[in-house]
Design brief:
Chain lengths: ~400, ~150
C-alpha cells in the first residue's frame, strides 16, 4: 500500500473513532448521572435484577429488606453470623456451603473475565506513563487524530474518569466512614457504574459482540446500577439501601473527562434519607465540623494537616489568623510579586505538635473573581525573616530568594 | 519562539489556561529566578551543588511538551513547551534538598504553562526546577514523622 493510501486510511479510521468517542461521552454522562442519582430507588427493577442473579447461582429468591442508608444496613447485618466477612475462611472451600455473596462474586468475576476477552479490554489496564496515555488523558481528540486507538482513549476517558468520580471519590470514602467491619461483602449499586459502563459502552458502540447469556447477565448488573444503592445478598434476605438522597459535586479545573469531586461549603456533600452523611471540601473528605462549625480552637487542635488546611480555607486564611490571634513576627515585600507582602506568624507549638511558624503568602496569579488567593505554609520555627522562610520552602537562602524576578 | 501572547501560546501548544487570565498580554520572558505556583525555576549557577552533568541522558522536549509536575489530586500540570531542537531536559537531577524535579537547558526561549497560573517565558540557559516544601506539623518534634512535606497547589 502506498503512503498516500495509508494516510487516507488513517484519516478514515480516526473519523470513525472520533464519532464513536462523541457517542461514548454521551453514554459516560448517562452512567455518571446514574451514579449520582438521588431519586428514590426503583425497587421493583432492583429486586427483579437481583432475583435473576440469585437464579443464576441456583439460589432461592430472597426476601428484600430496604433500608435508608449503608449505615442502616450495617446495623442490621452486624448481628448476623451468616454475613460473609472473611473471604479466606476455610468453611467456604466446599462450593455448596458457600454463602450467596461469595457465589455471586464468583459469578460476577467470571462474567467480567469473559467480557474482557470479548472486548479485548481490561478492567485493570497496566499502569503506563506512555506519551499516548498522557495525550489521551489531556487531549483525547488529538490522540485519536494522531493514531492512538479508541480503546486506549476509552480506558482513560470512561473507565478511569468514572472510577475517579464514583469509586475513589464517593464509594471509597463512604466505605471508610462505615468503619470497622466495612469489609462485609456487598455491592455498591449505583456506584458500581464504572465497570458496567466500561463494557456497556463498548457494546453499544459496536466494538464487542457478546453472547446472549453474557449480554443478559450484564444487563442485570446494569439494571441494578440504574435502580438502587448498595446491597448485601444473604441466603434468605437481601438488604438493599436506597440511593443517596443528596449529593453535591463540582468539576475541578483539572477535569478533562467530566470527572466530579465532592464539595459542599455549607452542608454535607453526601446525604442519605436517614441523615447519614459525609462532608467534603473540594474533594477532600473532612469531619462535619470543618464545614458546619470551623472554630479556630478546633483547627488548632486538629492533627491532620489536610483537614486543618481545608478548615482554614473554609474560613479563609486572613480570618483564621485574625481569630486565632497569632502573633505577627515580621512582614516583608514578596520579591517578584509586586505589591504583595510575605507575613510570618508564630504558631502555638503545644497545639501543632512541632515547633513551626506560619508564612502567609499571596498567589502570583489572579483567581476567576479577580482576587489573589492567600495561602499559608508552615516553616521551621527558627526562621525570623519572612523572605528567608519563603526561600527555605524552595531550598534557597534569603539572599537567593531576594533575586526572584517574577511570580505567576 | 519570539515574544508571544498567552492566547498564541495556548493555540500553538494545545495547552489551555483559564479564560480569566490576560490572554492578549505578551508573556514576559524572564532571565533569572522565577516561580510559578509551587514550582521555582533557578539558574543553575545559583545552585551548582545540584547535579545536571553526569551519566544521565538529556531528553528532547517533544512538540506536545513535558509535564514537569502534576499535582497530587491529578490536578493541573506545569507543562514545559519548546520549539523543536531548542530545549533538553533531565528528570530528577541529584539535589541535596531533594526538591529538584527537573533540569533544563535551552538555546531559545521556552515556556512553562499552567492552567491557573498562566504562562511564563524562560530565557536561554541552564536551569534547575524545584518543588516547594513546608514543615510538617503532624506528630511530635522527636518522632520520626517529623519531616517536610511537598506543597501541591
Amino acid at each position: 500500500m502506498n503512503a498516500r493510501k495509508r494516510r487516507v486510511e488513517i484519516l478514515r479510521d480516526s473519523s470513525v473513532a472520533l464519532a464513536r468517542w462523541q457517542q461514548a461521552i454521551r453514554l459516560r454522562a448517562e452512567w455518571l448521572s446514574h451514579g449520582l442519582s438521588c431519586e428514590p430507588a426503583e425497587r421493583d427493577a432492583a429486586q427483579a435484577a437481583i432475583t435473576k442473579l440469585y437464579a443464576l447461582i441456583d439460589a432461592k429468591p430472597p426476601e428484600f429488606v430496604w433500608v435508608d442508608s449503608p449505615a442502616k444496613a450495617y446495623e442490621l447485618l452486624a448481628g448476623r453470623a451468616d454475613a460473609p466477612i472473611d473471604l479466606t475462611s476455610p468453611m467456604w472451600t466446599q462450593s455448596d456451603m458457600q454463602p450467596v455473596a461469595i457465589r455471586l462474586a464468583s459469578l460476577q468475576g467470571q462474567l467480567r473475565h469473559r467480557l474482557e476477552q470479548r472486548t479485548g479490554s481490561s478492567l485493570d489496564p497496566p499502569w503506563s506513563a506512555t506519551g499516548s496515555s498522557a495525550l489521551a488523558r489531556d487531549h483525547p481528540e488529538e490522540a485519536l487524530r494522531t493514531g492512538v486507538r479508541l480503546p486506549e482513549v476509552l480506558d482513560v476517558g470512561v473507565l478511569d474518569a468514572l472510577r475517579l468520580s464514583l469509586r475513589d471519590g464517593l464509594a471509597v470514602p463512604l466505605r471508610a466512614k462505615l468503619g470497622r467491619g466495612s469489609n462485609l461483602l456487598g455491592w455498591r449499586g449505583q456506584h458500581d457504574a464504572p465497570w458496567v459502563a466500561h463494557f456497556d459502552i463498548r457494546r453499544r458502540l459496536g466494538m464487542a459482540l457478546l453472547g446472549p447469556e453474557e449480554a443478559a447477565q450484564l444487563e442485570m448488573w446494569a439494571q441494578i446500577v440504574r435502580s438502587c444503592g448498595w446491597w448485601w445478598p444473604l441466603a434468605d434476605i437481601c438488604v438493599v439501601a436506597e440511593r443517596t438522597s443528596a449529593v453535591s459535586v463540582e468539576t475541578s479545573a483539572a477535569s478533562r473527562h467530566g470527572e466530579v469531586r465532592l464539595h459542599n461549603a455549607t452542608g454535607p456533600a453526601v446525604r442519605f434519607a436517614d441523615g447519614w452523611a459525609l462532608h467534603a471540601w473540594h474533594g477532600t473528605v473532612v469531619p462535619a465540623w470543618v464545614i458546619e462549625d470551623p472554630a479556630v480552637e478546633r483547627i488548632l487542635a486538629e492533627r491532620n494537616v489536610e483537614v486543618r488546611r481545608c478548615a482554614i480555607e473554609r474560613i479563609g486564611w486572613q480570618a483564621y489568623l485574625d481569630r486565632a490571634g497569632l502573633d505577627l513576627i515580621a512582614a516583608a515585600p514578596d520579591p517578584g510579586n509586586p505589591g504583595c507582602d510575605l507575613r510570618l506568624y508564630d504558631l502555638p507549638p503545644q497545639l501543632w505538635g512541632t515547633p513551626a511558624r506560619l508564612l502567609l503568602a499571596v498567589n502570583g496569579s489572579v483567581e476567576r473573581d479577580g482576587h489573589r488567593r492567600r495561602y499559608g505554609l508552615t516553616v521551621p520555627a527558627d526562621l525570623d525573616d519572612p523572605v528567608a522562610a519563603a526561600g527555605w520552602s524552595y531550598g534557597l537562602t534569603a539572599h537567593q530568594y531576594r533575586q526572584l524576578l517574577r511570580r505567576t | 519562539m519570539t515574544t508571544i501572547t498567552l492566547a498564541e501560546l495556548t493555540a500553538l501548544s494545545g495547552r489551555d489556561v483559564l479564560d480569566h487570565l490576560e490572554l492578549e498580554a505578551a508573556i514576559p520572558v524572564v532571565n533569572g529566578l522565577q516561580a510559578q505556583g509551587d514550582l521555582i525555576v533557578i539558574p543553575h549557577a545559583m545552585v551548582e551543588q545540584t547535579a545536571v552533568i553526569g551519566f544521565r541522558t538529556w531528553r528532547k522536549v517533544p512538540p506536545s511538551g513535558v509535564e514537569l509536575l502534576r499535582s497530587a489530586s491529578g490536578g493541573n500540570p506545569h507543562t514545559l513547551v519548546a520549539d523543536p531542537y531548542t530545549c533538553e531536559w533531565l528528570p530528577w537531577p541529584w539535589d541535596p534538598t531533594g526538591l529538584a524535579i527537573a533540569a533544563l537547558r535551552n538555546t531559545s526561549t521556552v515556556y512553562l504553562i499552567h492552567r491557573e497560573h498562566g504562562a511564563t517565558g524562560i530565557a536561554p540557559g541552564t536551569w534547575v526546577v524545584r518543588r516547594q516544601r513546608e514543615r510538617s506539623t503532624a506528630g511530635n518534634s522527636w518522632s520520626s514523622s517529623r519531616r517536610d512535606v511537598l506543597v501541591a497547589d
